[in-house]
Design goal:
single chain, mainly alpha, ABC transporter involved in vitamin B12 uptake, BtuC, two-stranded antiparallel ribbon, 14 helices, about 75% helix, about 0% strand, globular
């Protein structure tokens, strides 16, 4: 019964918007100050990093893969950026963006050319990046004091909206355009739907997968830059808690866990749902310790409702 109601909405990309609207209405009733200007700005500001990491995860999931390392990679990038920024300034930001692409492409290369499942490659990367972050940081917090103005723009609020969120949405719009206009975007979905059929149709599937991981790495680097700019400090696990919410945002937004269905627009609404849900938990005084439990439940329920079981059986 639930599936019969949900599926038509899901096909039109409206299901996540319905969920978001219901959540906002419920929380507004529970707390009249929920939609105050201050609360909305705070909500959007908190959503920026989550959105970028969810977009990174979404690209990989659209290809029928999974990335377990993107949050740990973001943590490592904030550590490297915090260490280099005092001496290199803007150049350190450029370096992080390049590193994001290189690390992402390397993961994709290992996955494709050595026939290693994506979850194994990224699980290994998670361990490597987590260890590297601990070593480079000395397992301590790093405070950025010099050249912090390089990221000062993240604090701006043009038109009353946080710059971090505006630019994160702009990145999502660019990605949406890439999926709508460029052959690459259509190829990513085709690989996720059926890689063998995509290869028979002339798509260079290996190149698409490697490039998809590379673009995902770029978005992880952007998330790290945003996060350091917002907090002004770094630590070896500063972004690790974003892994499960990032996956939840992708799935709740309506992107199929089996790949091929969904896109950046749905991920934006999914990220907003997760952020609103997190604030809702604070409103009803639920301890933050319970949030990972809730995100896990959300992922399981969302997949149970939306998954195409025939496709998952075929892929498995």
């Amino acid at each position: 019964m639930v599936e019969r109601v949900w599926r038509p909405l899901e096909r039109r990309g409206l299901a996540s918007l319905v969920v978001l609207t219901v959540l906002v209405v419920v929380l507004t009733i529970a707390d009249s100050g929920f939609l105050s200007a201050k609360s909305v700005v705070s909500l959007l500001d908190q959503t920026a990093v989550l959105l970028l990491l969810a977009l990174a995860q979404g690209i990989v999931i659209l290809m029928g893969r999974i990335d377990l390392a993107n949050a740990a990679l973001a943590s490592l990038f904030t550590v490297i950026l915090a260490l280099l920024m005092p001496d290199l300034g803007v150049a350190s930001v450029v370096l992080i963006l390049v590193l994001g692409v290189v690390v992402g492409a390397t993961q994709g290369f290992i996955h494709v050319f050595f026939q290693v499942p994506s979850f194994v490659v990224t699980l290994g990367t998670l361990g490597i990046m987590s260890g590297a972050a601990l070593i480079l940081s000395g397992a301590s917090t790093i405070l950025v004091e010099e050249n912090r103005e390089v990221l000062a723009w993240i604090y701006d609020t043009p038109l009353g909206l946080p710059m971090a969120f505006i630019l994160a949405v702009a990145a999502a719009v660019i990605l949406m355009a890439a999926f709508a206009i460029l052959p690459w975007g259509r190829s990513v979905r085709a690989v996720g739907l059926n890689q063998r059929a995509a290869a028979y149709s002339g798509i260079r599937t290996d190149a698409v997968v490697v490039s998809g991981f590379a673009v995902a790495g770029l978005f992880v680097a952007l998330a790290a830059i945003w996060l350091l700019g917002q907090l002004g400090t770094s630590s070896p696990r500063i972004a690790n808690t974003f892994l499960l919410p990032g996956i939840a945002a992708v799935i709740v937004g309506g992107t199929s866990i089996a790949g091929g269905v969904g896109g950046p627009g749905r991920i934006v609404s999914g990220a907003l749902i997760i952020s609103v849900l997190r604030i809702g938990l604070d409103i009803i005084h639920v301890s933050s310790a319970f949030q990972p439990i809730l995100y896990g439940i959300v992922v399981i329920v969302a997949i149970a409702i939306t998954v195409d079981r025939q496709r998952v059986t075929t892929v498995t």
